Amino acid sequence: MGPEAVRFRIAGALVSPVSYSLSTFPLLPYVAAAAASFVTYAGYASMAPRSQFFGRTFTQGADERKLALTYDDGPNDPHTLHLLDLLAEQGVRATFFLIGRFAAQRPDIVRRIAEAGHVIGNHTYSHPNLIFCTARRVAQEIDDCAKAINHAIGTHSDLFRPPFGGRRPGVLRVVAEKGLVPVMWSVTCYDWVASTNAEAIQRHAQRQMKHRGGNVILLHDGGHKTMGADRRQSIEASRGIIREFKSEGYQFATVPELMRTLRATLPS
Fold first, then answer.
1. Which end of the chain offers a freer environment for a tag, N or C, measured as fewer CB atoms within 10 Å?
2. CATH number of this structure's domain 66-265
């Protein structure tokens, strides 16, 4: 605010002009800058997969020689089925975070996932960004997804992944009340980008693991908008990732297996 006089009207009366300048409140610019920085970081932290700013989430295990392939947004016909064939061929078990409305449409695919020994987690019923949802809506999304999965296979894991990775304290509070464990990731393959290809997806995994570490890999076997999303590139990239990292001595595990490894390394 400049040194110009500021006039105040109170109940129709003109109060004597008072002059203000930045020198009157010397800390004001710093307070404003700090507030802006906090808001910016809070927005980043609500979506950043590794951030623990709003509460604890699982992002990676202790043994970086063990990798967990995780797949979001299924079940998806036909690509989830093709992926299951690939994982069986390679002897790899993965972790699938399913959308409830798709699980309700194709419980047979949900059963195929479970029967193959893969882990199934909750990814909400309709895939909203939970940052913008009330606590009641968050709870309903989780409950409806759980019901759809339970209808297909009965009891499943206590894992939960928020759509888009979006969470805030209120979201994580509801997740905890439901007895679920929030699971994020530490390797982002950007396989949802329309212009990508299998080689680019695989390169993302290579670069991130080389420069930042991490062993929970985010991929997609479906798309949250509709059943039938084309995920051929994700499946082909999965083949490359499995072959490459197996050749380098890595092992593949499910998220619960990584969690057990992490707990074993924590001080008692």
1. C
2. 3.20.20.370
Residue 183 has what DSSP assignment?
B
pTM of the model: 0.83
> How many angstroms separate the CA atoms of 106 and 74, rounded?
10
Q: pLDDT tens per residue, the chain (268 residues)? A: 444 444 444 444 444 555 555 565 565 554 555 544 534 434 545 677 888 888 999 999 999 899 999 999 999 999 999 999 999 999 999 999 999 999 999 999 999 999 999 999 999 999 999 999 999 999 999 999 999 999 999 999 999 999 999 999 999 999 999 999 999 999 999 999 999 999 999 999 999 988 877 899 999 999 999 999 999 999 999 999 999 999 999 999 999 999 987 654 444 4
Q: For residues 33 and 230, what is the distance between their CA atoms, to the nearest angstrom? A: 44
Which helix (H) or strand (E) is 202 found in, with range? helix 198-211
- Which of the following is catalytic: 72, 73, 144, 221? 72
Residue 136 to residue 88: CA distance in whole angstroms: 39
Q: Does 72 qualify as catalytic in the annotation?
A: yes
Q: Active site residue: 79, 118, 204, 220, which one?
A: 220
Six-digit token string for 172: 């994580």
* For the chain, domain boundaries: 66-265
